[in-house]
Amino acid sequence: MCFNICTYGGENAMMVGYLEKIGRSVLGFFESFGAVMMLIYETICQFKHPPNIKHIIVQMAHLGVDSLPIVTLTILFTGMVITLQTAHEFIKYGAQSTVGGIVAISMGRELAPVLTGVVAAGRVGAAITAEISTMKVTEQIDALKVMATNPVGYLVVPRLIACMIMLPLLVVFADVIGTFGGYLVAVFYSGINSVTYMQSINNFMVVHDVTGGVIKAVFFGAIIAIIGCYQGLNARNGAVGVGKATTGSVVSSIIIIFILNCFLSLILYR
Fold first, then answer.
1. For residue 193, which of 111, 122, 134, 218 sits 20 to 30 Å off, Cα-Cα?
2. Which of 263, 174, 155, 167 is nearest to 221 (CA)?
3. Exposure of 30 in the CB half-sphere (CA atoms within 13 A)
4. 138 and 206 share one domain
5. CA 232 to CA 179: how far, in whole Å?
């Protein structure tokens, strides 16, 4: 009898422990969500003052131009792999005249914006978080407040504007590079005529296939900047906190990008 009561009490304690963990996770999620919303609101309020153009240009060069090599490699080989996997099947069924259009549309609508966003989240988001979190743990953020400088206006706004400008430009660049990678495989490996490949793009692709991906990139850039700045501004516990904030920034940004991409695709390409 005593054994049964003890067992029942132990099971209750385990259940309570699990429920407490779930509750803490839910509360932590909503707490973080509310803090991000407050940061977005404060960032919008800072647009009442003219942003520092010099800081924006520096961030555009650092976050955008410096990302070109990794974006080029990622998207070029992605376009090549897509054509490598699909061209043979299309040729087998006599549909080789559609290969270029399929590659270009898939790049413009999905692969270029999503993969560029993921690459930027890994490189740009990590850089933003590491820089701001280092300033946070070394009390440079507090020094800005002492000098009557708003940290959001000084740190967040230039990075947000730079990401929202540069990521769409990177996506347009990725569209061209990915389609060119498909062209190389289609023409030099699969034996598709170059004129046929280019004509296929002209026949099947429309402007909205590109503009939709660019619109996605604007949202992705905003997510990367806001999440990176939020994690950086809330870092703590020295070097360990910087590492945790950077990891959290990259993981959160990538997850939100994939979720948001689904909803944006439903809205833009219905």
1. 111
2. 167
3. 5
4. yes
5. 36
Does the pTM exceed 0.70?
yes
- Cα–Cα distances (Å) from 114 to 70, 76, 220, 258, in that order, read 14, 14, 8, 7
> Are residues 70 and 177 part of one domain?
yes
Name the residue type at position 31.
E
- Do residues 41 and 85 both lie within one domain? no
Q: How far apart are CA 228 and CA 225, in angstroms?
A: 5
Kindly state the tokens that stand for 254.
């990538």
What is the distance between the terminal CA atoms of the chain, rounded to a whole angstrom? Answer: 64
Q: Are residues 122 and 22 in the same domain?
A: no
C-alpha to C-alpha distances, 31 to 16, 37, 140, 252, nearest whole angstrom: 22, 10, 25, 15
Do 142 and 23 have their domain in common?
Answer: no
Residues 139 and 64 in one domain: yes
Question: Are 115 and 225 contained in the same domain?
Answer: yes
DSSP 53-74: HHHHHHHHHHHTGGGHHHHHHH
- Taking the C-alpha atoms of residue 242 and residue 248, their distance in angstroms, rounded to an integer, is 10
- Please tell me whether residues 19 and 103 are part of one structural domain: no
78 alpha carbon, distance to own chain's centre: 17
Q: Tens digit of pLDDT for each residue in 213-257?
A: 999 999 999 999 999 999 988 888 777 888 888 898 999 999 999
